[in-house]
Specification:
The strands form 3 sheets. A 7-stranded parallel sheet has the order 3-2-1-4-5-6-10, sandwiched between helices. The chain has a 3-stranded mixed sheet with strand order 7-9-11. It is built from 9 helices and 12 strands. With 312 residues, the chain is α/β, with parallel strands linked by helices. Helix 1 packs across helix 6, helix 5 runs parallel beside helix 7 and helix 7 crosses helix 9. Strand 5, helix 4 and strand 6 form a beta-alpha-beta unit. The chain has a domain of 155 residues: Rossmann fold (3-Layer(aba) Sandwich). It is globular and about 55 Å long.
Length: 312
């Protein structure tokens, strides 16, 4: 298959592996790839009912033997490595789970990719990683594990000639996100059940990016030439406060009065940065298409349908 010509990505007939396929982003990516005509090999521990047009491989990336078997069976042209533990918790109990899933799991996938013939690979970075130019302490075990995983991806690109790149999504949101530790699903689930959403001051700002735009960016990243070892930011390039997003959700539901700010303490050491979208556009030709207002409209419509009849 011809790739990296600079044309629009064409995955028809391509064998694509998606790790973490049962997660929020994984489900969206698998559906897009299947709709484009790719042969999708979905890797994960539990197959979600939402995924049907894929070949499922029960695989825990913390187990190198399972990764080798799954990649050997899939014989991929492309690997989208999304699997991992995502949490902002600073609890010491999260050190081992994030180390095993995010750091060891990434190394296992990179080793397996090299062994099956060096397909193109894209790994997920994180906005919580310390900046590469200005060294700083990671703000959580998760951030440290993702920082280490990105370093290993660059190692495999430089030393072992693996065609691997890193896409660093910022604050992803959208339909299908059900992790109640995340702002949008937490606020939506509380308000749609007639409860209050209790938050911190909400002054913290983030670069919010809609899930469909993230999927587009992953396809563009893995397809584009000259990306070995490169990192691209995936965001909208604008910082918006937690307060504004939460109140925006409240306004759409007529429940602003139940968005309770200044109830919880603010988190320290939280990373605040906006994506360098101009650099990303130069590297992979991608720009976000969905504005925050449109994205929140779509997301609220999905949650309304999801939580219909569940008001407490």
């Amino acid at each position: 298959m011809s790739v990296g010509t600079g044309n629009a990505p064409d995955f028809r007939g391509a064998r694509c592996v998606v790790t973490g396929a049962g997660g929020f982003l994984g489900i969206h990516l698998c559906r897009r790839l299947a709709a484009s005509g790719a042969a999708v090999h979905a890797l994960g521990r539990v197959q979600p009912p939402a995924l049907t047009d894929v070949t499922w491989h029960r695989c825990d990336v913390t187990d190198l033997a399972q990764v080798r078997v799954a990649l050997g069976e899939a014989r991929p042209d492309f690997i989208f490595h999304l699997a991992g533990v995502v949490t902002g918790s600073r609890a010491i109990e999260m050190v081992l789970p994030t180390f095993l899933a995010n750091l060891a799991g990434t190394v296992h996938v990179l080793l397996g990719a090299t062994e099956v013939g060096a397909p193109r690979v894209v790994c997920l970075g994180s906005l919580q990683e310390p900046d590469e130019a200005i060294r700083g302490a990671p703000c959580s075990p998760y951030a440290a594990s993702k920082y280490g995983a990105s370093a290993y991806a660059r190692l495999f690109a430089e030393i072992f000639a693996l065609q691997v790149s890193i896409a660093r999504p910022f604050m992803v949101y959208g339909p299908g996100q059900l992790d109640l530790t995340k702002l949008v699903p937490y606020v939506m689930s509380q308000l749609l059940r007639g409860k209050a959403a209790e938050l911190s001051s909400g002054r913290q700002t983030f670069d919010w990016v809609y899930v469909d735009d993230v999927v587009d960016s992953l396809l563009a990243t893995i397809w584009s030439p000259g990306m070995k070892g490169a990192t691209v930011d995936v965001g909208c390039g604008v910082l918006t406060s937690v307060r504004d997003v939460a109140l925006g959700l409240g306004r759409r539901l007529g429940a602003v009065d139940r968005v309770r700010l200044d109830v919880l303490p603010d988190r320290s050491l939280e990373q605040t940065r906006q994506g360098d979208i101009e650099a990303t556009a130069r590297l992979i030709g991608w720009r976000p298409q969905v504005s925050l207002e449109e994205g929140l409209d779509r997301t609220v419509a999905w949650y309304r349908e999801r939580f219909a009849g569940q008001r407490a």
